[in-house]
């Protein structure tokens, strides 16, 4: 009887994860104001000018947060200051979207200082990648969609496709991508809510209140500048935590600028992932254009996405 009740509870939780609907913030329109803030590593305003020019070309007004130009060793000011900047932009009804200025590290240090009550009343798009994964995951636990896309400093070198994909996502056009086939791709079709982001950040928040539930969902991962054995360790940790037991599919973005030891690990990042996922039957897309690369296409975290992987290529379509 006890075993039956446990199975019933697990089945109920899985069904809830599959049927939950997240809230998409209102689409932007010309004349709206967006904010660029630094929740992690420090950045000077001059480095954000390409992003400012880009957003203005879309008909948007841009304001810079008080964290821009601030410095506390690596960080864009002390924790309280970065948290206050984020809080003010979340609470300000005239700000319709918040774009991270830069990645690095530091968002996890302020997330528990932030109150999302006013955000829940008037949600807005949160945009970024890398360390912004903390916000993507935390807001997913609260039931809100965010955009995994360009940060301020990446606008300078971003491809036109990356910039256009972010514009479309912000203004209400659902992303749809057609990709060439990859040797490692695992064929299949799947549909579910997209979760994930930077692998190192996801690994670091396991067990915290910011950890998103992955059951019944499609997982996206990407990373930069990690040792290959670290990639193996993190993926094994997720595997042992049951991350891959009940998911519907995986999208692997850029795994770039990886490091190796004097004695080689013996596999690159994609081969490590292939070795991990060989024990599962869900579809897997490799080398999706998102992450720490110039062609960093926008993805809606929390949005419902359909993936179709065949020998001729794959499609990723948000609904």
Descriptive report:
The protein has 319 residues and is α/β, with parallel strands linked by helices. It has 2 domains: 33-170, Murein tetrapeptidase LD-carboxypeptidase, N-terminal domain (Rossmann fold), CATH 3.40.50.10740; 176-318, LD-carboxypeptidase A C-terminal domain-like (Glucose Oxidase, domain 1, 3-Layer(bba) Sandwich), CATH 3.50.30.60. It has helices at 2-19, 49-57, 79-91, 117-121, 133-142, 160-170, 199-204, 228-240, 269-277; strands at residues 33-37, 61-64, 95-100, 125-128, 146-148, 176-179, 188-198, 218-224, 249-256, 284-285, 299-301, 304-310, 313-318. The strands form 2 sheets. It has a 7-stranded mixed β-sheet with strand order 6-13-12-7-8-9-10. A 6-stranded mixed β-sheet has the order 2-1-3-4-5-11, sandwiched between helices. α8 packs parallel to α9 (269-277). Mean pLDDT is 95; it is low at 3-10. This is LD-carboxypeptidase. One of its GO terms (biological process) is proteolysis. Residues 1-17 form the signal peptide. Pfam families: Peptidase_S66 (PF02016), Peptidase_S66C (PF17676). InterPro entries: Carboxypeptidase_A_C_sf, Class_I_gatase-like, LdcA_N, Peptidase_S66_N, Peptidase_S66C, S66_fam.
Distance between the termini: 41 Å
Average predicted local confidence, pLDDT: 95
Shape: globular
Q: What is the CATH class designation of the largest domain? A: Alpha Beta
* Helix fraction by DSSP (H/I, runs of at least 4): 25-40%
Low-confidence blocks of residues:
3-10
Structural category is alpha/beta
Strand content: 15-25%
Radius of gyration: 19 Å
- Named at the architecture level, the CATH assignment of the largest domain is 3-Layer(bba) Sandwich
Sequence of strands across the biggest β-sheet? 6-13-12-7-8-9-10
CATH superfamily of the largest domain: LD-carboxypeptidase A C-terminal domain-like
Remind me, CATH topology of the largest domain?
Glucose Oxidase, domain 1
Query: What can be said about the biggest beta sheet?
Result: 7 strands, mixed
Please give the domain count. Answer: 2
Q: Count of helices?
A: 9
Order of helices and strands: HEHEHEHEHEHEEHEHEHEEEE
Give the strand tally: 13
Protein name: LD-carboxypeptidase
GO molecular function: carboxypeptidase activity; serine-type peptidase activity
Family: Belongs to the peptidase S66 family.
Signal peptide: 1-17
């Amino acid at each position: 009887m006890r075993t039956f009740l446990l199975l019933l509870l697990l089945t109920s939780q899985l069904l809830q994860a599959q049927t939950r609907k997240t809230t998409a913030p209102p689409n932007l329109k010309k004349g709206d104001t967006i904010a660029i803030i630094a929740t992690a590593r420090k950045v000077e305003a001059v480095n954000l000018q390409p992003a400012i020019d880009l957003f203005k070309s879309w008909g948007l007004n841009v304001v810079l947060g008080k964290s821009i130009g601030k410095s506390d060793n690596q960080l864009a000011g002390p924790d309280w200051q970065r948290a206050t900047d984020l809080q003010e932009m979340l609470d300000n009804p005239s700000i319709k979207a918040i774009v991270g200025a830069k990645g690095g590290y530091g968002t996890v240090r302020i997330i528990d200082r932030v109150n999302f009550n006013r955000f829940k009343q008037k949600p807005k798009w949160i945009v970024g990648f890398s360390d912004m994964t903390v916000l993507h995951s935390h807001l997913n636990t609260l039931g809100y969609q965010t955009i995994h896309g360009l940060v301020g400093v990446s606008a300078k070198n971003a491809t036109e496709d990356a910039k256009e994909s972010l514009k479309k996502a912000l203004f209400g056009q659902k992303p749809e991508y057609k990709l060439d086939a990859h040797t490692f791709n695992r064929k299949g079709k799947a549909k579910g809510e997209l979760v994930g982001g930077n692998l190192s950040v996801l690994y670091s928040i396991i067990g915290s209140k910011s950890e998103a539930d992955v059951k019944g969902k499609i997982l996206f991962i990407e990373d930069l500048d990690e040792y290959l054995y670290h990639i193996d360790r993190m993926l094994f940790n997720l595997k042992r935590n049951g991350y891959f037991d009940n998911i519907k599919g995986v999208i692997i973005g850029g795994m770039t600028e990886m490091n190796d030891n004097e004695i080689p690990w013996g596999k690159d990042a994609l081969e490590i992932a292939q070795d991990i996922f060989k024990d599962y039957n869900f579809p897997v897309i490799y080398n999706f254009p998102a992450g720490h690369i110039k062609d960093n296409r926008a993805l809606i975290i929390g949005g419902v996405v359909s993936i179709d992987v065949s020998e001729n290529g794959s499609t990723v379509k948000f609904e």
